[in-house]
Amino acid sequence: MDRLILLLRDTSDNNIGSADSFSDRLNNKYTVSILVIFALLTTTRQYVSEPISCWCPNYFTKDQVDYVNKVCWTTSTYYLEDSVTEIPGEDEPIDKVSYYQWIPLVAVGQAFMFVMPKILWTIFSRKTGIPVDTITDAAMERQKKSEQAAADKTMEFMVKTLGKFLKELSWDKRYAKRLKCYSLRRKIYVTFYGNYLTCLYVLIKLLYILNVILQIVLLNFFLQTNYSMYGFETMSRMVKGEDWTTSHRFPRIAMCNFIIRAMGENMHRYSVQCAIPINLIHEIFYIFLWFWFVFILTLTSASCIFWCYSCFPKTHRLLYVREKLYADGQLRRRPDEETERHFKNFVLKYLKRDGCFIARLVAKNTNDVISADLLAGLWKDYVLKTMRYEAEKQLLLDNDTSSRVNSVPNKVGLFQRVMSEPERL
For residue range 289-304, what is the model confidence (pLDDT) as tens digits? Predict the structure, then answer.
């Protein structure tokens, strides 16, 4: 329970948990705020002022009128068309409306459903050993810093943190490839390491989409109507010049039947007409909510398609990283064969999908310049380690002492050209 409270606090903090995109924040931040504000507004309206006012016989005392108002609000009312001239009898079926009282609680439940994907993303993204929001938050801090020294220090932290994560992925995958006797376990390791965050993020996007669709379906049952067509019906009435605020879903005027017991077996049955002014707020809100749901559903679906298109095809990953390194002055448009080989290994075997995904997420939360600086730092670190590894490997393979001595300067010389003269690569 304490862990859940901590996660809820993290997701509600504006300064942390920023490892998401604008469409995600529309779901887990702005929509949640709208629903909570509406729940507070309707709750205040229900318990501070009178949500219902019934027209009682003139011989009712003030206390009796208050009692009737409370009975009709807490039980059920029903709607009659203006064309109906007779009140239904005791045994006649009527369509009662009993959901007004539960609207604040339903709004809070809706808000929780919108924040759940964010909680799941926070929990499972940290299973990788690196909180993604650590990188994105550091990038946001880097963007705010005006002093170059402080900004460089923050960028160095980002490069080291992400580089450590990528190095661990490489070692885990090498270990997985040695698991010859456990083919299933080997396939799981090889498939998901380096792709876990990307696949998880797309899954969270799909959860946001499913959540909106599910909420529309649930509102159909809760409001006892075809809520999925609510917005279209409202627009149709507006085009026809009809009063779009008059609806049987949220009637301003409703009927209420109740019984007052007297001494003995005497039971007095009453039917009164009640005004429900709070329904004006309910109807306007649910019309707005329908259009809001359509908006975030469209935007989230487009965002999901964009991330799949950007992160899964390797050609798009190569193009993205190439443009960022070129913009930072670390790579030419047409590098030589050896540099191109190192570049492809850097993107496809070192960064993998997760590294490219984090770089794109940094750009979404800050700007392309910081993302380019991050990739440039990782590229320099990768080239340094690769050159050292190849030089040591050459020393072990070369039996000639003179060849061993000459091979190291050659490899180091290549590294120096990569680091000091990037414009020639």
Answer: 999 999 999 999 999 9
